[in-house]
Amino acid sequence: MKIRPRLVTHQLRIGILAVQGDYEAHARMVERAGAEPVYVRRPADLAGLAGIILPGGESTTHLKILTEEGLFGAVQKFAAAGGGIFGTCAGAILLAREVRNPAQTSLGLLNISILRNAYGRQLASEIHMGLTKLRSEPLEMVFIRAPIIESVGEGVDVLAEDEGHPVLVRQGRILASTFHPELTADPAVHIFFLSLLSAGRAS
Ligand code: GLN
Questions:
Q1: Tens of pLDDT along the chain (203 residues)?
Q2: Smallest CA separation from ligand 1 atom 2, residue
Q3: Counting beta carbons within 10 angstroms of the beta carbon of residue 37, is it exposed (0 to 12), middle (13 to 18) or buried (19 or more)?
Q4: Which phi and psi (to 5°) does residue 94 adopt?
Q5: Other beta carbons less than 10 A from residue 122's beta carbon
């Protein structure tokens, strides 16, 4: 998707790491949720953003590019300064405190331990309807070579579970899902992320 620059905006600006993976679907969802998407490829792109999204894709590739472009430290600083981050699937892996299968460097911004490719190496996706703490109706959850959140530590709120594992978790302004809300027609999770950013400083 091509993003048209706007001169005047009162919308929240949400960065989307746009190096590989399904970042265009996130940009469409951010627009539907009422915010302005901005593609992030280098540290200077983080200026003026309320939050950033780390999309799905291949976390090893994202990690390599984050490191090469100087974004790894810049994203950690962004979070330390109060910016919100939403990681989906590979993005959740990047946010985790601990990554297994195999062990991998991560941003360490979310107090969870996560197991990569936990459902085997299949390319097939699975779609489940699941309950969340976001609302009473179930939510469509698309899993693609998803990781499993094995444990959550102090400060992490589990907002949804699937087959006994957390699949949507929040710690202050850090949100992560092991599924792909951007691949559905339902902007509920993106709207929830925006609500974390506009609701004053996180607890
Ligand atoms: N299997 C990928 C990884 O480990 C994540 C898959 C995804 O983002 N859909 O990085």
A1: 777 665 555 689 999 999 888 899 999 999 999 999 999 999 999 999 999 999 999 999 999 999 999 999 999 999 999 999 999 999 999 999 999 999 999 999 999 999 998 876 655 678 999 999 999 999 999 999 999 999 999 999 999 999 999 999 999 999 999 999 999 999 999 999 999 997 654 43
A2: 58
A3: buried
A4: -65, -30
A5: 10
**Catalytic site positions:** 89, 180, 182
Q: How far is the CA of 198 from the centre of ligand 1 (A)?
A: 29
Measured from the Cα of 116, ligand 1's closest atom is 4
CA distances from 179 to 13, 103, 176 (A): 23, 21, 9
The answer as to whether 25 is a domain residue is yes
* Residue 165: domain span: 13-202
**pTM, 2 dp:** 0.92
Question: Is 8 within a domain?
Answer: no
Domains: count for the chain:
1
> From ligand 1's centre to the CA of 58, what distance in Å?
5
- Residue whose tokens read 């939510």: 139
Q: Going by CA atoms, what residue is nearest to atom 4 of ligand 1?
A: 116
Ligand 1 proximal residues by C-beta, below 6 Å = 56-59, 89-90, 93, 116-117, 144-145
